[in-house]
Amino acid sequence: xxxxxxxxxxxxxxxxxxxxxxxxxxxxxxxxxxxxxxxxxxxxxxxxxxxxxxxxxxxxxxxxxxxxxxxxxxxxxxxxxxxxxxxxxxxxxxxxxxxxxxxx
Length: 104
Fold this sequence. Notes:
The chain is of the alpha+beta class. It contains two helices and five strands.
């Protein structure tokens, strides 16, 4: 088993877990109930951890999580230069469509 992701925010770990499971990658959560020991442990030792059940899935899992992170990055409108959040498919300033992201 290999550690693939850990974070203090449980929601982000659960989202990573869901993305990997949808892709057919078997994962396990560790430290689910470690919050109760947070006074005895360093805070980062109580974070929820996501572990791969098969080491051979590591490269594919890393790529999936990198792609997910890239989807959350904002973008700049090519027409007016306005910065837009990742959730916007259209520029909120001028209404132009978000440019397509190339997958090289």
